[in-house]
Protein backbone atom coordinates (compact mmCIF):
# COMPACT_ATOMS: atom_id res chain seq x y z
CA UNK A 1 0.00 0.00 0.00
CA UNK A 2 1.44 3.39 -0.94
CA UNK A 3 1.35 6.30 1.44
CA UNK A 4 -0.41 9.40 0.11
CA UNK A 5 1.16 12.80 0.83
CA UNK A 6 -0.89 14.98 3.14
CA UNK A 7 -3.25 17.36 1.41
CA UNK A 8 -4.27 20.87 2.40
CA UNK A 9 -7.55 20.60 4.21
CA UNK A 10 -9.41 22.26 7.04
CA UNK A 11 -7.09 20.52 9.52
CA UNK A 12 -3.95 22.01 7.83
CA UNK A 13 -4.30 25.79 8.05
CA UNK A 14 -1.82 28.15 6.41
CA UNK A 15 0.67 29.52 8.94
CA UNK A 16 2.57 31.69 6.47
CA UNK A 17 2.35 32.82 2.84
CA UNK A 18 5.32 33.84 0.69
CA UNK A 19 5.73 35.18 -2.85
CA UNK A 20 8.77 32.95 -3.54
CA UNK A 21 9.70 29.36 -2.81
CA UNK A 22 12.93 30.60 -1.20
CA UNK A 23 10.88 32.59 1.31
CA UNK A 24 8.76 29.57 2.23
CA UNK A 25 11.87 27.42 2.46
CA UNK A 26 13.53 30.00 4.73
CA UNK A 27 10.46 29.92 7.00
CA UNK A 28 10.53 26.12 7.30
CA UNK A 29 14.28 26.23 7.89
CA UNK A 30 13.70 28.76 10.70
CA UNK A 31 11.17 26.40 12.26
CA UNK A 32 13.60 23.50 11.99
CA UNK A 33 16.43 25.55 13.52
CA UNK A 34 14.15 26.30 16.49
CA UNK A 35 13.39 22.61 17.13
CA UNK A 36 9.85 22.75 15.71
CA UNK A 37 8.53 19.34 14.55
CA UNK A 38 8.75 20.10 10.81
CA UNK A 39 7.28 16.72 9.86
CA UNK A 40 3.93 18.45 10.50
CA UNK A 41 4.68 21.17 7.90
CA UNK A 42 4.15 21.32 4.13
CA UNK A 43 4.86 23.92 1.46
CA UNK A 44 2.05 24.25 -1.07
CA UNK A 45 2.42 26.26 -4.27
CA UNK A 46 -0.77 27.75 -5.68
CA UNK A 47 -1.68 29.21 -9.06
CA UNK A 48 0.89 27.15 -10.92
CA UNK A 49 2.10 28.18 -14.34
CA UNK A 50 4.74 26.93 -16.73
CA UNK A 51 7.45 29.43 -17.62
CA UNK A 52 9.65 28.71 -20.63
CA UNK A 53 12.76 30.86 -20.82
CA UNK A 54 14.26 31.13 -24.31
CA UNK A 55 18.02 30.77 -24.04
CA UNK A 56 19.25 31.23 -27.60
CA UNK A 57 18.54 30.71 -31.27
CA UNK A 58 19.14 27.12 -32.36
CA UNK A 59 20.82 26.61 -35.72
CA UNK A 60 21.78 23.35 -37.40
CA UNK A 61 25.39 24.04 -36.45
CA UNK A 62 24.53 24.48 -32.78
CA UNK A 63 22.34 21.37 -32.88
CA UNK A 64 25.26 19.43 -34.38
CA UNK A 65 27.63 20.82 -31.75
CA UNK A 66 25.27 19.91 -28.91
CA UNK A 67 24.84 16.45 -30.42
CA UNK A 68 28.62 16.07 -30.66
CA UNK A 69 28.99 16.91 -26.98
CA UNK A 70 26.31 14.44 -25.95
CA UNK A 71 27.72 11.80 -28.27
CA UNK A 72 31.23 12.31 -26.89
CA UNK A 73 30.01 11.66 -23.36
CA UNK A 74 28.13 8.57 -24.52
CA UNK A 75 31.19 7.40 -26.46
CA UNK A 76 33.34 7.87 -23.35
CA UNK A 77 30.91 5.72 -21.36
CA UNK A 78 31.02 2.98 -24.00
CA UNK A 79 34.81 3.24 -24.13
CA UNK A 80 35.02 2.87 -20.35
CA UNK A 81 32.78 -0.18 -20.46
CA UNK A 82 34.90 -1.75 -23.20
CA UNK A 83 38.13 -1.17 -21.27
CA UNK A 84 37.03 -3.91 -18.89
CA UNK A 85 37.91 -6.36 -21.67
CA UNK A 86 41.11 -4.57 -22.82
CA UNK A 87 44.41 -6.42 -22.53
CA UNK A 88 46.96 -3.60 -22.23
CA UNK A 89 47.31 0.08 -21.35
CA UNK A 90 47.69 1.09 -25.00
CA UNK A 91 44.41 -0.57 -25.96
CA UNK A 92 42.62 1.12 -23.03
CA UNK A 93 43.66 4.58 -24.26
CA UNK A 94 42.75 3.68 -27.84
CA UNK A 95 39.30 2.47 -26.75
CA UNK A 96 38.62 5.63 -24.75
CA UNK A 97 39.79 8.00 -27.51
CA UNK A 98 37.98 6.13 -30.26
CA UNK A 99 34.80 5.98 -28.14
CA UNK A 100 34.88 9.75 -27.66
CA UNK A 101 35.68 10.46 -31.33
CA UNK A 102 33.08 8.09 -32.80
CA UNK A 103 30.49 9.21 -30.24
CA UNK A 104 31.09 12.87 -31.16
CA UNK A 105 30.85 12.14 -34.87
CA UNK A 106 27.62 10.16 -34.64
CA UNK A 107 26.17 12.61 -32.10
CA UNK A 108 26.87 15.54 -34.43
CA UNK A 109 25.22 13.72 -37.33
CA UNK A 110 22.14 12.85 -35.29
CA UNK A 111 21.93 16.38 -33.86
CA UNK A 112 22.18 17.96 -37.31
CA UNK A 113 19.68 15.59 -38.93
CA UNK A 114 17.27 15.75 -35.98
CA UNK A 115 17.17 19.53 -36.08
CA UNK A 116 16.90 19.61 -39.87
CA UNK A 117 13.89 17.28 -39.73
CA UNK A 118 11.93 19.71 -37.53
CA UNK A 119 11.54 21.96 -40.57
CA UNK A 120 12.27 25.14 -38.62
CA UNK A 121 9.35 24.68 -36.23
CA UNK A 122 11.52 24.96 -33.14
CA UNK A 123 14.57 27.08 -33.89
CA UNK A 124 15.40 27.96 -30.30
CA UNK A 125 16.72 26.34 -27.16
CA UNK A 126 14.81 26.91 -23.94
CA UNK A 127 14.43 25.89 -20.32
CA UNK A 128 11.02 25.19 -18.76
CA UNK A 129 9.99 25.31 -15.14
CA UNK A 130 6.80 25.25 -13.13
CA UNK A 131 6.40 28.22 -10.78
CA UNK A 132 3.68 29.26 -8.38
CA UNK A 133 2.38 32.74 -7.71
CA UNK A 134 2.31 32.07 -3.96
CA UNK A 135 3.75 29.48 -1.58
CA UNK A 136 1.80 28.69 1.58
CA UNK A 137 3.38 27.00 4.57
CA UNK A 138 0.69 24.83 6.17
CA UNK A 139 0.79 22.90 9.43
CA UNK A 140 -1.24 20.22 11.13
CA UNK A 141 -3.99 21.73 13.28
CA UNK A 142 -2.44 20.68 16.59
CA UNK A 143 0.81 22.63 15.92
CA UNK A 144 -0.48 25.41 13.66
CA UNK A 145 -0.77 28.10 16.33
CA UNK A 146 2.77 27.48 17.57
CA UNK A 147 4.13 27.59 14.01
CA UNK A 148 2.25 30.82 13.27
CA UNK A 149 3.68 32.46 16.40
CA UNK A 150 7.23 31.38 15.54
CA UNK A 151 6.91 32.66 11.98
CA UNK A 152 5.58 35.98 13.30
CA UNK A 153 8.83 36.30 15.28
CA UNK A 154 10.78 35.59 12.07
CA UNK A 155 8.81 38.29 10.22
CA UNK A 156 9.52 40.83 12.97
CA UNK A 157 13.22 39.98 12.90
CA UNK A 158 13.38 40.47 9.10
CA UNK A 159 11.62 43.85 9.15
Structure description:
A three-stranded antiparallel beta sheet has the order 1-3-2. The two termini are 46 Å apart. The chain has helices at residues 21-33, 60-82, 89-116, 141-158, and strands at residues 14-18, 41-57, 124-139. It has four helices and three strands. Helix content is 52%, strand content 24%. It is α+β, with helices and mostly antiparallel strands and 159 residues long.
- How much strand? 15-25%
Strand order of the largest sheet: 1-3-2
Residue share in helix:
40-55%
Strand tally: 3
What does the secondary structure layout of this molecule look like, with pairings?
Blueprint: E1 14-18, H1 21-33, E2 41-57, H2 60-82, H3 89-116, E3 124-139, H4 141-158
Antiparallel strand pairs: 1-3, 2-3
Helix pairs in contact: 2-3
Brief descriptors of the model:
52% helix; 159 residues; alpha+beta; 3 strands; three-stranded antiparallel β-sheet
Can you describe this structure in just a few lines?
The protein has helices spanning 21-33, 60-82, 89-116, 141-158; strands at residues 14-18, 41-57, 124-139. By secondary structure, it is of the alpha+beta class.
Amino acid sequence: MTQQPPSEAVDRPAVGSYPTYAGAQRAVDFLADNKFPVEHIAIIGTDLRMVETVLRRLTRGRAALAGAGTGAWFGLLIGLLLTVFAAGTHSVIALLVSGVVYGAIFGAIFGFVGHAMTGGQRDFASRSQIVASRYDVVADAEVAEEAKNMLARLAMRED
